[in-house]
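> tool_call: predict_assembly(chains=two)
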Amino acid sequence: MGKFTFNINRRNYTVDVDPQMPLLWVIRDYIGLTGTKYGCGIAQCGACVVHVDGKPIRSCVQPAARVSGKKITTIEGISENNDHPVQNAWIDAQVPQCGYCHSGQIMTAVALLDDNPNPSEEEINTAMSGVLCRCGTYPRIKKALNILLKRSKS
Amino acid sequence: MMDKPDPQTISRWMEPGYFTRRDFIKLSTISGAFLALGIIPGCNNNRPGVINLINYDPPKYQGTQLNPFIFIDSSGQVTLVSHRPDVGNGVYQAMPMLLAEELEVDMNDVNVIQANTDKILYGGQSIGGSNSIRRSWLPSRQMGAAAREMLITCAAEKWGVKKEECFASRGRVVHRPTKRKAHYGELVAAASKLSPPEDPPLKAIKDFKVIGKSLQRKEIPSKTNGSAIYGLDLRIDGMLYASIERSSVFHGKVRTFNAEEVLAIPAVRHVVKTEMVVSMKIREGVAVVADNYWAALQGRKALKVEWENGEAESWDTDRIVAQYKEDTMQEGQNHQRAGNFNKAFNIAARTMEAEYELPMQSHAPIEPLNVVADVRHDSCTVWGPIQAPNWVREDLAAFLQLSLEKVKVHPTTIGGGFGRKLYTDFPNEAAFLSQKIKAPVKVIWTREDEMTQGPFRPGSINVLKCGFDATSHLSAFGHKVVTTDYYAPKHNKYILDGVITHAYDFPNLSYDAVNSKVPIPYIWMRGVWCSTNGFAHECFIDEVAHELGLDPLDFRLEHLRHASRFTAVLEELSKLTGWRTAKKQNTGKGIAILRLRDSIVGHVAELSHDENSRIAIDKITAVVDCGIVVNPDIVKQQIEGAIVMGLSTSFKNEITISEGKVEQNNFDTYHLMRYDECPEIEVHIMPSEEDPGGVGEVGMPGAAPAVANAFFDLTGERIRKLPFDLNPV
């Protein structure tokens, strides 16, 4: 066991956990933020994407000890009122079906656009292909991203 | 312990008209008991237009109930009940729209809540079989209309005017001559004392204000900020966490395990044997129960189980396929539809035959199986992503020998189900464990657990035959399906879904089903038999058309000419895709059309290859005739998603077995279609005034045959075995 401190969504938390415990379970079971999901545990599906110091990472394979002291943002932390431009576009395009993967989808899209407000199709493909959706909402994700890119230009 | 769902339940579920209007009206008269029991979850949210997800400590709702589906409080706030759980298919929007239409309320002004599990009040509550709108179309509107008529009657009595002079609009009753108004909240207390009318008048289609609109789904905002509560997100007081090691060989038995060593790991509380019934056999496991999930996983890593493998060890994919192929010689259950196939085939001037092989699949919802169970000496409560709440309730009552009233089942938001979460095994196992350790417990399956344990969609072998007479007219057509269905009493005709629901006018037509016994756990997956039969059938139709030198669309039009809904879909597809215009170089087009759950979908796939001969699926166009459309955007969402799943299960992956074990275990070995592989998808809906068909599944089965037929158009090669890699390395 070990004590680790995280700044999650602009609040500080200290937890006493196994240093190998993945950040995913720290966030879900110790901090109590359940928007970040478990899907595969081996960094294949992307349902667990959070931002660590602004970069998207797979929290299911990040041991707590390795990200201690870092600034972490989860789906609950990207806006106060569900009104981040990406969230607005997701609602306007009616993207989620079961919705389970969409915390990961949205966190991936937010990180992509923060890093590069005008990504090429190839850059979008590279980023978004990391997150699986079994309901098959990919055409709607594309639609939402098109809405976003159009809005950011106008 | 019972193995559920039982065939009787299934056949009732599949049988059209199971839930009749009379049932609904009857139900509304016993609804008084409902409120008294206080079993409505949620309802503490008075903000209009907000969906109220399940509240696990339900406060008593202050509103008055007009029937099991409609509550109105004294301020006029209307709360509508969705009696089926949300698996992502828009039921929280589309189902209440039926009530709102007749109740004359605006969807923006109502709350929507999830019903508790109660078969007496709600009948079938499973989310599966594309049943939601299809089964509720008439009864839900009658519920809304009955409540409206009760409110109008009260207003008329209150004002001392004729009922015929009053009408309902936007949550109010209006007296036409005097323009006098009363909102529903003022009337509901008196209205609730009336008997519901036997046969309330329903609105004409032309008067619909809610039905037919692409209203946004109320629960979507909860899925963009992480606030939706899935089974995995639940926590109750005193709850422990469990991870269960199950035999990697199907139906293996636990011989010994090292409980002492595992118990020495910090935070591990129990190490116990578990069991449940899967596909008529006991599945055993060893559960590691701990204070938190990570600790349970660490305990499981230290767990050593010695297994006794049974008969399943001698099974692999090759043996299953070999048995299915051998069983194609069996007669099976025949559903001869026209003429005499055998006679016509035997005297045919020329015949054609083809065999199609379909693989096993994993449902692979991104939310793995999980459930919270709290079994006490005289009660049982479970919470989780449960697609079939009533089956789970009945299964647990039988297993724990409790009366139904003592078993509570709370479905949460479901992170994808596709049929897997219709199965009762995972709640049963968790209840077994909770009873054994005498504590509430949350069992979380790892992805590996889910992918290696099944149940799976079974594969199948399809034998297609046809004969031509001396003038090259098709004179006989036969389709035999060999697969495995544990829930079909004999050779259930549902095995022939998508085939016997088709409409081709071939003479001497024969459909046969052979139910082949294989000791692998199976359960239906989205599209069920149609997803495999449909591929074989629509590919063979294409082969026959080419054999006759006919355009595959024209051939279909010719043999469906008596079925105008089919031909209208085909003509629309032809128009939208420029089917009859000259083909560009290095491109191919393919078509398929199927009917499932009373809806028809036609697909056209467009393929191309680049200078390196790399084949791309550029576009899928789907035309849907699903009768009256309740919410067009939800229909499109379902068809789009089903196409992606249809392509994923045909061109990306399969489940294979070696020595009784599944060879894939996670998304690195079982590949799903990803964002960059998804073709452009365009969905068109045919206008219709027919009763609604289901739309959750029908978009899936035709996608793969359309692609396979386009592949032939492009390359001249037939795809008769799935999965097929369009671009092998």
